[in-house]
């Protein structure tokens, strides 16, 4: 046995015997939320994973052939170990390869030059900051080898770890990770989740996320601000809530006191009440103004029943998506990619982009129509629709060029306030009209057999808020309360939408307009002033909401176009290309709005069927089927039924809306 070990060159045998590091790298890749085997090979190839030598009859098998790089380590990549032995590369330098040619297959020797290039590409030095920790890992490897006997310098068989906790601490960065977890337990707080087992693993995950993730649901374009906190806040057990209560933002160049440090502003966790408020704002927007006309298309009996059914199905679908997220944390696109591959991620992002783009086109039409009516009512010039759309485009462009979406945060508050005031006014007038007219001005149809397909698309459009379900759930302090919060919100939203649509249709009958604001009377000066005021409020609300609604679409298209064009890192040239893409998207909004100007109700139904139906009814049950293959039969039937319902809504409503476009 001793003779066999002496045949292995000592320079080749400088590897660290650690199945532990290799297992931790594989575990890291699983938590990196990547999907297919090809991606796994690419990402794991960026990790520095040490490979032990196993001497067997004086020969080294192809599966364990050592690989040396310029740093003196013997290592290989997990990506290589996942491949067939015939495709693996011997990355040893020529000197080492020649000295051990009797112990390695000839196929490996023939691939030395090719393997060297591949090793350089997969080296941890290619990671941002990877070279900074090279000495740390070399020191750790040296300390490990010094504990072994002379014979172990040439051969070391891996042993099972007696105490995994202690062994985890005795790795670079292990003591710090152990301290963070134990300190949280001491304070009675839940131990934080450690997402990486070493700094190199963190670098690999960071690079993978930064450059390989499609910017779908991660729409942050600028880093968070820094805040100033006491240096000894951790020692004094100052809670983050107390620290943030009197937060002071750090200004670059500012001199801090000796007892102060600047840290990145943490994301504030949402309480149950705040989560309910955010969900409510997600589902209540200006689209509610289209419902009275939609109820006319559906019928006074069919419309409320179908709206309630859609609310129940949406709640079920949202909860399915949340369950999938518990199994694989990530964004909507991440979940789709995990279960079905990259093509599903692109499909999800395409649906998100189209839905947000369609919303903004509808808002542009709304803005142009209502602005024209207000100006005409006040005695202004009667301008063509093209002029109003161009005005909307000119005002929209500067807002879409804003990178930090947080700067538009105040606009959401103003928009919500305008919508609430307008809804209260419309509710009051609808009730007043019903009382004065002692009912509806004409008989109401229970079921509209001609136009109910358009109503179906509008109903789906009204509940489209799935894009905010995952972010709000992930931001809650107690995510287990999210199902209850979502149930409460959707129940209230359903009652609100059904009551508003029913009252509007009952108050105006078959004369109800596409936008219910047009039905408000303007006979007296007071009525005219009230109508103009409500119209202006909604014009402001719609315009302030449009940049926020368009921002996800911009980020998705911008990332895809610039990646395809091979744009480099942040620079003046890239900034100009980004601006050009954003302006072109604004032009697209204006062009589509011009085409659908006189068919707003049909356009809204088209967006609901084409973009919203897959996001609401098709993708979540598809993910759930793949995530829980061992679920009971009745649950599988439920998922398949929801998928079929989504496909029916998608196909039938799409055909109906296209036919309606051609008729009008």
TrEMBL record:
Pfam families: Aa_trans
Biased composition (Low complexity): 94-119
Gene Ontology cellular component list: vacuolar membrane
Region span, Disordered: 59-119
Parts of the chain that traverse the membrane: 301-322, 343-368, 388-406, 413-432, 452-473, 485-508, 536-558, 603-625, 637-661
Keywords: Membrane, Transmembrane, Transmembrane helix
Keyword check for Acetylation: no
Its membrane topology: Multi-pass membrane protein
Ranges of residues in domain Amino acid transporter transmembrane: 269-658
Compositionally biased residues, Polar residues: 60-79
Location within or outside the cell: Membrane
InterPro entries named among the record's database cross-references: AA_transpt_TM (IPR013057)
GO MF annotation list: L-amino acid transmembrane transporter activity
Family: Belongs to the amino acid/polyamine transporter 2 family.
Protein name (Swiss-Prot/TrEMBL): Neutral amino acid transporter
């Amino acid at each position: 046995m001793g003779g066999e070990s002496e045949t292995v060159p000592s320079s080749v045998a400088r590897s660290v015997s650690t199945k532990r590091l290799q297992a931790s790298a594989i575990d890291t890749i699983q938590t990196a939320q990547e999907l297919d085997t090809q991606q796994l090979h690419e990402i794991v190839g960026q990790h520095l994973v040490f490979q032990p030598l196993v001497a067997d009859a004086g020969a080294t098998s192809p599966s364990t052939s050592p690989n040396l790089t310029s740093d003196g380590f013997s290592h290989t990549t997990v990506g290589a170990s996942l491949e067939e032995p015939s495709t693996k590369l011997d990355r040893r330098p020529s000197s080492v390869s020649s000295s051990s040619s009797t112990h390695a297959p000839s196929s490996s020797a023939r691939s030395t030059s090719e393997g060297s290039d591949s090793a350089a590409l997969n080296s941890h030095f290619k990671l941002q900051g990877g070279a900074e920790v090279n000495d740390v890992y070399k020191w750790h490897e040296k300390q490990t080898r010094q504990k072994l006997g002379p014979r172990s310098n040439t051969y070391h068989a891996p042993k099972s770890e007696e105490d995994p906790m202690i062994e985890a601490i005795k790795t670079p960065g292990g003591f710090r990770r152990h301290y963070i977890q134990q300190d949280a337990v001491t304070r009675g707080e839940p131990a934080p989740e450690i997402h990486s087992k070493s700094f190199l693993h963190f670098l690999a995950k960071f690079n993978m996320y930064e450059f390989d993730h499609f910017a779908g649901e991660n729409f942050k374009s600028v880093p968070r601000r820094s805040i100033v906190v006491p240096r000894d806040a951790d020692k004094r057990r100052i809670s983050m809530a107390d620290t943030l209560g009197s937060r002071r933002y750090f200004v670059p160049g500012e001199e801090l006191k000796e007892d102060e440090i600047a840290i990145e502003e943490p994301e504030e966790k949402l309480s149950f009440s705040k989560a309910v408020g955010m969900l409510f704002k997600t589902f209540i927007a200006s689209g509610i103004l289209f419902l009275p006309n939609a109820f006319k298309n559906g019928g006074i009996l069919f419309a409320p029943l179908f709206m309630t059914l859609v609310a129940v199905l949406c709640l079920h679908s949202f909860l399915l998506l949340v369950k999938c997220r518990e199994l694989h944390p990530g964004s909507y696109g991440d979940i789709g990619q995990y279960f079905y591959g990259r093509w599903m991620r692109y499909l999800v992002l395409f649906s998100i982009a189209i839905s947000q783009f369609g919303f903004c086109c509808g808002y542009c039409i709304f803005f142009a129509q209502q602005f024209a009516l207000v100006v005409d009512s006040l005695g202004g010039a009667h301008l063509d629709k093209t002029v109003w759309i161009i005005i909307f485009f000119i005002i929209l462009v500067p807002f879409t060029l804003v990178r930090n979406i947080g700067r538009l945060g105040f606009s959401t508050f103003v928009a919500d306030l305008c919508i609430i005031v307008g809804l209260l006014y419309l509710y009051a007038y609808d009730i007043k009209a019903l009382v004065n007219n002692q009912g509806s001005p004409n008989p109401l149809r229970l079921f509209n057999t001609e136009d109910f397909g358009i109503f179906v698309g509008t109903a789906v459009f009204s509940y489209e808020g799935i894009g905010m379900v995952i972010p709000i759930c992930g931001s809650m302090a107690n995510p287990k309360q999210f199902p209850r919060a979502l149930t409460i919100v959707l129940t209230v939203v359903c009652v609100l939408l059904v009551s508003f649509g029913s009252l509007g249709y009952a108050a105006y009958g078959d004369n109800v307009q596409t936008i219910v604001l047009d039905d408000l009377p303007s006979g007296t000066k007071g009525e005219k002033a009230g109508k103009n005021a409500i119209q202006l409020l909604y014009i402001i609300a719609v315009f302030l909401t449009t940049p926020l609604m368009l921002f996800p679409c911009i980020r998705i298209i911008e990332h895809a176009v610039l990646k395809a064009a091979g744009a480099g890192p942040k620079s003046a040239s890239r900034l100009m290309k980004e601006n050009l893409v954003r302006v072109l998207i604004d032009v697209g909004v204006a062009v589509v709005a011009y085409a659908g100007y006189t068919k707003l109700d049909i356009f809204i139904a088209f967006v609901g069927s084409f973009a919203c139906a897959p996001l609401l009814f098709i993708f979540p049950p598809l993910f759930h089927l793949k995530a829980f293959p061992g679920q009971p039969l009745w649950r599988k039937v439920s998922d398949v039924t929801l998928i079929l319902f989504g496909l029916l809504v998608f196909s039938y409503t799409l055909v109906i809306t296209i036919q309606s476009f051609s008729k009008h």
